[in-house]
Every structure is written in C-alpha cells, then in structure tokens.
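Tokens for Amino acid ABC transporter permease. Go.
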Amino acid sequence: MNFSDAFSWVNISFLLEGLWVTLKVTGITILLSLLLGTFLGVIRYLKLPFVAKGVGLVVDTIRNLPLLLIIFFTYFALPQIGLRLNIFWAAVAAMTIFESCMISEIIRGGMNAVPKGQMEAGLSTGFTRGQVIILIILPQAIRSMLPSIVSQLIALIKDTSLATVISLPELTHNARIIYGQETSYVIPIFVAMTFLYWITCFLLSRLAKRLKFAG
C-alpha cells in the first residue's frame, strides 16, 4: 500500500471528476424520477379505470427487474430500434425508469396514508380532484414519505456505480482505472471512494432532515 502516491493530486482530481459525473447523473435522475414517480403514483392513487391497472403492471414489472438489466437495455437494446443514447444519457434514462417506479410506490403509499375524508372535504369546498391532490393530499403525505424517498435517493447515488459496465466515467469507473494501473493503490483508492460516497450520502441525508424540520 502506498497512500502518499495513491493520493497524488492527479489521482484525487481524477476521482473528483468521476464524482462530478456521479452527481450530475444523480441530480438529473432525482429531478426526472421525482416528477415521473409522482405522476405515476397519483395515477395509481386515483385508481383511474384501465389506466391505473396498466401503470401498475408496468411499475411492478420494472421494480422486479435488476437495474443492471435496464442499463444494458437502454444502452445496447434501444439502438436496435433506432433510439441511440450516449453513455451518460443511457445511464440517466435507465436510472430514471427504475427510480420513478420505486418512488411511485412511495408516493402512492404516502397518499393512501392520508385519511380518505380529506379528498371528500376538498371536493365539497369546490376544489377539483387535481387541486385537492396538489394542495391538500400531497402536502400532508410529504412528511411520511420523506424518509423513504431520501433512502431511495441515497441508494440511487450508490447505484450509479453499476453504470461502470457501460463505461460511464463515474467515481467507481475512474477508481478502477487508477488501481488498474498500479495494484498497490487498491486499498488507498477504496478508502478514498468510501469517503466520497459516504460524505455525499451523509450530506444528502442531513439536507433532507433540515427540509423535514423546516416543513
């Protein structure tokens, strides 16, 4: 083990470049999956005829597939039908599809925990169903949903490492390149990776707690 050489500025900067890609993929995926997941969760909550069952079938199917398989599909299979994505957007698409389905179940569960009378009370005041969902149901459900959503998003940060199989230059991919060139760097680089993943997930969890108490 050679910590001093392993932690040279060249290696650390290369790891930070990988972390930046990890954060970009994570940030875009979080935004897209929260929007799509909320939409899917609301559809299932409203139990729209035919649509809710179709959405439920798709969501349950994707939730039971390995994320790695979805990554392979977006990068290798979609080009076969004329939809070619570069490595970055293939990873974002795969993770958005997977995370949206996971988050949709959290959203639906949180909304179902709100007393049914809230919907009836909102409708009786003249609100539309959409207004009741946005102004009454979702705000009440957020507190119960937040811990589960944060846990899912923290898992997403770690799951970005799976995209190394399609050579996305994220943190794990760059770390493999470093210790692949010098085997004595394996443990030091693993220590650095551990710290970078930990601090990122820790800061996200702290931010979520601040938002929870502020809400």
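The chain has one domain: 3-213.
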